[in-house]
Design a protein that fits this description.
Keywords: Membrane, Transmembrane, Transmembrane helix. The chain is mainly α and 99 residues long. It has three helices and no strands.
Length: 99
Amino acid sequence: MCPIENMAFNVIFLYVQASSPSQETLGATNGIAQTVASIARAIGPAATTSLFAVTMQRPDILGGSLVYTLLIIVTIGAVCASRRLPAEPWARKKRADLY
């Protein structure tokens, strides 16, 4: 993998860690994220290739740019979802609350 791909892969795992509600559920959150990523890797290439083929056969739909429009919408949705993550992964308890 090139350095940019490595960096993106690591950032994704930081986002997954930040989305976990607590440290106790981090394992389940990672498991769900890996499952979803595997499904996306299995379905994604076939779906986008088929969508591209349909776009080329039917240029009357959005002027032949249907596949790109849908990918832009998915990207905007992912960016909006990542902006909703908390600044700190888990709220830290104050020292006085521990006693």
